[in-house]
TrEMBL record:
Boundaries of every Carboxyltransferase domain copy: 27-298
Protein name: Biotin-dependent carboxylase uncharacterized domain-containing protein
Organism per entry: Streptomyces melanosporofaciens
Alphabetized UniProt keyword annotations: ATP-binding, Hydrolase, Nucleotide-binding
Pfam families: CT_A_B (PF02626)
GO molecular function annotation: ATP binding; hydrolase activity
Upper taxonomic lineage: Bacteria, Bacillati, Actinomycetota, Actinomycetes, Kitasatosporales
Length: 305
């Protein structure tokens, strides 16, 4: 029903609908997508009494503003930002009751990049392949928010939990990313691998939901040419011809022809989602996984999703 909806008043730099993504479809060429900072997404949903898979709004740097057509319990998590209801300050990181007709605004991020706005009942966009997530690479899911767009809300569930405070990990001044080397670390010289773990890297302003790009030194290659296209995992650290690692995030392609020097385990990717351009990046070795026999590693097959 149209009363169970909100109207976009200010979409911000990039605001998308996100849930936990499309899991298990990489073999069909479908990226996972979903919230980049999944702990923040899950927390926002818990604060308003939703299941963790309910869809939220993911904002980027400048926040967003929406006008509610029904009363709603709302929570904003992720990157800390000012929250207002009809211009009056409201709590960040807590459940807030917003009356029908009121303007809810999540302002610009004070620290970090992405904030998450949850509504009791969740955002009821049309599911595509089992998910309501917006995928900016493939175009699956609802379009990014624009001025005047109307989005439906689901029916509220149980009451929001009564909590005094919630955990917040904050945004670190340096992004430290453990890396499991392989499967294509043999495409780089020993000097190149030392550069990976000792180089002065920074987050590039060209980063997006597809991948976190880095600025800094180039990794020296041990061989020329490119691979036949092979599977790319979430967290893959792919090295394009300029030699600067790119960390694949939720909207990454499912295949690629540049060598993957290592993989960052998923629990560390939420921090990458909140790293602003210019943030120092340090890659720390976690050893090397068993990626299969050398004969397989030099072919076109390899890393699954």
């Amino acid at each position: 029903m149209t009363d169970s909806a909100f109207v976009v008043v200010r979409p911000g730099a990039l605001t998308t609908v996100q849930d936990l993504g499309r899991v298990g479809l990489a073999h069909l060429g479908v990226p996972r997508s979903g919230a980049l900072d999944q702990p923040a997404h899950r927390l926002a949903n818990r604060l308003v009494g939703n299941a963790e898979r309910a869809a939220t709004l993911e904002t980027t740097l400048t926040g967003c503003a929406v006008r509610l057509r029904r009363p709603a319990t709302v929570a904003v998590t992720g990157a800390p930002c000012p929250v207002t209801v009809d211009g009056r300050p409201a709590a960040w990181g807590a459940a807030v009751r917003v009356p029908a007709g009121a303007l809810l605004e999540a302002g610009a991020a004070a620290h970090g990049v992405r904030s998450y706005v949850a509504f009791d009942g969740g955002v009821e966009a049309e599911p595509v392949l089992g998910s309501r997530a917006t995928d900016v690479l493939s175009g699956l899911g609802p379009a990014p928010l624009v001025d005047g767009a109307v989005l439906r809300l689901g029916a509220p569930g149980g009451p929001a939990p009564d909590v005094d405070g919630v955990p917040h990990r904050g945004v670190a001044p340096e992004l430290v990313l453990p890396v499991v080397l392989g499967p294509r670390d043999d495409w780089f010289t020993p000097a190149g691998l030392r550069t990976l773990t000792t180089g002065d890297f920074r987050v590039s302003a060209a980063s997006n939901r597809i991948g976190l790009r880095t600025e800094g030194p180039s990794l020296e290659r041990a061989r020329d040419g490119e691979l036949a296209s092979e599977g790319m995992a979430l967290g893959a650290l792919q090295v394009p011809p300029d030699g600067r690692p790119v960390l694949f995030l939720a909207d990454h392609p499912t295949t690629g022809g540049y060598p993957v020097v290592g993989v960052v385990p998923e629990p560390y990717l939420a921090a990458a989602a909140q790293a602003v351009p210019g943030t120092p990046v340090r890659f720390t070795p976690l050893g090397r996984a068993s990626w299969g026999p050398p004969a397989r590693r030099t072919g076109a097959g390899g890393l699954g999703h």
